[in-house]
Amino acid sequence: MPVPPGRCWLLVLLVATLALAEASATVFGTSASAAASPVSQVEVPTVPLAVPPGGVKKVMYYDGKTLARVEYGQDGVTLQTCRLFELDDEREAEPIIKAQGLPVQPVDLATMLRLISQCRELRDWTASTNSTLQWSASSLWSGIIPGTKWCGLGDIASSYEDLGSQVAVDLCCRAHDHCPVKLKAFRSGYGLVNFSLYTKSHCDCDRDFHGCLRGAKSNIADTIGNVYFNVIKVPCIRKVRKAVCTDRGRYSRNENNCEAWAYQELGMQFVPTEHHYE
């Protein structure tokens, strides 16, 4: 059975990634759970809604291609549970919202990214008990790095809470997969078309991914970061604007002379990666 189009070279990179990691001294020698250092409760840096009388507040936040269902404690600030939903199409939001039956609060990109980061710190996951890398044919076939369920082409997790044995790395990949602004392979949106074989995400999501992998402090995380940012150098998406001259002066014939400038908005664009992994 042939490997699906576009996956051959990516699978080679996956195998090379794991080979490099295994060749190092110890992969996740500190154990997955210790490296992740999750906490059970965190403070969300957004203004919460008023707490409903006599109970816990549950609400959904929405931005772009991400829905977040969160549950607050009695104080209306302490985040107790979080569940993120990835949307391939923004129209998928409506049935999920109806099924949850909760109030919905639209938020901007920056707020959603902060919330995704805070959700990552919650200890609400269930991880595989085997802490060693498993060379699973099925995971490689799916384009997923063994030992993870979210790192690679898509994911093989049974639920949002389901993580592989490499917990700290998987938490980074899961958060990155839920970036509100992204274009998957051969998809169009934001006035762009992604002709690449991999997803391109908002630059702020890549920045968070870079920092998370560095914080994981493991050989496998470092190798993934090196492949993503240094080898493939995955471009990211952000709004771009350029400076244009609006007044060159009444008598000036010099094209390099400009007395007044303004910014022209170019909208979302693919830009080179803004990070180098070291």
3D architecture notes:
This protein folds into 3 domains: 1-35 and 128-235, Phospholipase A2 (Up-down Bundle), CATH 1.20.90.10; 39-124, no CATH class; 237-271, no CATH class. It contains 8 helices and 13 strands. The protein has helices at residues 8-23, 32-36, 93-100, 109-120, 137-141, 167-177, 203-216, 219-231; strands spanning 42-43, 57-63, 66-72, 78-86, 104-106, 126-127, 162-163, 182-183, 188-189, 192-193, 200-201, 236-247, 260-271. Strand 2 (57-63) and strand 3 form a beta hairpin.
Salient structural properties:
3 domains; Phospholipase A2; single chain; five-stranded mixed sheet; 278 residues; alpha+beta; two-stranded parallel sheet; 13 strands
Uncertain segments: 1-9, 22-54, 129-135
Taken in chain order, the helices and strands follow as HHEEEEHEHEHEHEEEEHHEE
- The oligomeric state of the chains shown is single chain
Stated plainly, the CATH topology of the largest domain is called Phospholipase A2
Question: Count the strands?
Answer: 13
Rg on CA atoms, Å: 21 Å
Protein name: Phospholipase A2
Keywords: Calcium, Disulfide bond, Hydrolase, Lipid degradation, Lipid metabolism, Metal-binding, Secreted, Signal, Zymogen
InterPro entries: PLA2-like_dom, PLA2_histidine, PLipase_A2_dom_sf
Subcellular location: Secreted
Question: What's this entry about, in short?
Answer:
This protein is an alpha+beta fold and 278 residues long. Helices cover 30% and strands 23% of the residues.
